[in-house]
Amino acid sequence: MKTEYKSLPAVALRGLTIIPGMVVHFDVSREKSIAAVQEAMVEDQKIFMVTQREIDTEDPQKGDLYEVGTVGTIKQIIKLPKHIVRVLVSGEARGVLREIETESPYMRVGVDVMDDADLEVPDDLNTQAMVRGLKEMFVEYASKNVKMSKEAVARILEISDLVKLVNEIAANTPFFYEELQDILNETDFWKRYELLAFKLVNEVQIMDIKEEIQEKVKERVDKHQREYILREQLKLIREELGDDTTMTDAEEFAAAAEKMKAPKEVKEKVSKEINRFKSAMNSPAENGVTRTYIETLLEMPWNKTCKEHGDIAFAKQVLEEDHYGLEQVKERVLEFLAVRTLTKKGESPILCLVGPPGTGKTSIAKSLARALKKPYVRISLGGVRDEAEIRGHRKTYIGAMPGRIANGIKMAGVKNPLMLLDEIDKVSTDYKGDTFSALLEVLDSEQNNKFRDHYLEVPLDLSEVLFITTANTLQTIPRPLLDRMEVIEVSSYTENEKMHIALEHLIPKQLEKHGLTTQQLTISKNALWKMARNYTREAGVRQLERKIGDICRKAAREILEENKKKVAITEANLEKYLGKEKYTFQMANASDEVGIVRGLAWTSVGGDTLQIEVNVMPGKGEILLTGQLGDVMKESAQTGISYIRSVSAQYEIAEDFFEKHDIHVHIPEGAVPKDGPSAGITMATAMLSAITGKKARADLAMTGEVTLRGRVLPIGGLKEKLLAAKNAGIKTVLIPKENVRDVEELASEITKGLEIIPVEHMNEVLKNALTEK
């Protein structure tokens, strides 16, 4: 391809790209552009036309212009009113902008002119195939584009030269100026061919999609038009027959609005929407949206309430029937009912029941609704991440609906139901809004009397709703939301409580569910005890209920297949029905050992014991921590070793001991993640035992956080930890002194047989835990 440098007057084009082979006229109004055209006419009528990148740029510089433009010949100039000049120009060759020589009184540029005239294209089968392929694509495009004239298409299809064909198709195809600029920029002919072919195919696909969408829209419009005509005909027929008994929808809505008990604001809103519904009868789309909205407003129980049952004795009876244990929870619920009955006010604190899974939080709320004889609505918040789930969607959205709170009120049929917000700790937040913040208004007694659902658009009074929330943990609930709720802890069940729950509730429920009677199936207490200890590991009773269900199914099959009249489950034959034991408690070691101390841990399924092992070996003073420990536990180990080093003289530990020995701390069951500060004193004791060679008592367990100065700080989950110690055969438990008040609240069946020693410093821990060499 031949290139020649030329100095030419230049015109910056706005929203227009001219390519070689194109004959086009355009208007110029800028002084510089008019001067450039006039100068070109004085010279040899040659002018360089280049498109500017931004249409709004008034005085473009080199960086504001595309690099590639077109050198053309001016054919005609016409002066128009208002200082506008119309120019007819013929594009001839590509030009690459190298420099702007002058900017005033007109723009003159240095251009590398690229001539395609000497481009050699081999006349082979490949070229013929390219010509035919391009023509086929162009014909398909032209058949779908009404702007293409038949004469121009016919003229182009007669061209057999590939270079000329590419230029002519590009020049005569109504692409947007940006697409034409892409073609102009491509100085390599073969790449230009590929780009043109790609754009033709792309345009055909776009037009196909456009036709498909237009066809669907046309079908929908025709359907709505047909419905309108039929509706008008039906209306006319009714008028001719004098059929006045049939009320129109608008009349039915108006009649329902008259009977509706609601605040004045709501009635005005309904009346306004009914009038809009009447005027939208000819628009099915708007008509459907308005109809749904009016029906929702009419179905809401704005001023409809149910009478509360304030009999405390009946409430106590219901709670005792439905739940065993949970004395503190029952006591708080009855106190709450007593105050509510005396004040005769709907407003009340929002109770938040917090505890491990399967401990009966949801069923307590259900029992409370039965005790009060109120409608019960359960809303599961687990995984809710869209604020619109709480506040509702705005009517302008397709498929809009009220939020879960408003919908729950509608389902209850009264404005003062008991509403359970289940799993409030599992609400999540993302780009769709902060769901926790939306709940702040719902659960605030000072704000929720004017709760505004986005769909309803009128205030909804939630002040008389009795809200109960449940959660497994308080860690994920934001502080402002937690501050609006009164927390009641539902703790783990003891094995004795599990036994009573199984006998009084689970077994009768499962027998009825599986079509069995107490004469057909019996489960001994020892078998239940073994199921709770060795076949389940949980804080609640869900797994225990499933195991009882397994036994019921196997017993039902035996009764039918073997014609048995009775199946008795005992401790001896339990393995036959449930298989091998799944869980065993790590019992206390038989003898005292050096570097092995038993700790206590809280888990989501109850308490457990952790056996912490420490070995000391020659090395360089490194501390190894294994057993998949979390960051907090690793920090406790570092704190413990720092405390030991500070008191090393007291225990006759050599000054260079920590420089010449490595200490390895390990907690078995490495696949199970472990974290928390309550193993601090346990790890410190185990490390000191291994360093000094003093044995640690095997019948003793401990729990507590340690500080650098050896103070023992309080911990949580004491009930579960003491139960774990008792199950493991531990006789003595060391607890932080500040946790003594928690021990006083525990039932005697938990503390019976345990010697609980409160400690406040590591000196007391070591005095009780370590023996002499």
Automatic annotation (TrEMBL):
Its main location: cytoplasm. SMART domains: AAA, LON. Induction: By heat shock. Gene3D superfamilies: 1.10.8.60, 1.20.5.5270, 1.20.58.1480, 3.30.230.10, LON domain-like (2.30.130.40), P-loop containing nucleotide triphosphate hydrolases (3.40.50.300). It is an enzyme of class 3 (hydrolase). GO terms for biological process: cellular response to heat; protein quality control for misfolded or incompletely synthesized proteins. HAMAP family: lon_bact (MF_01973). This is Lon protease.
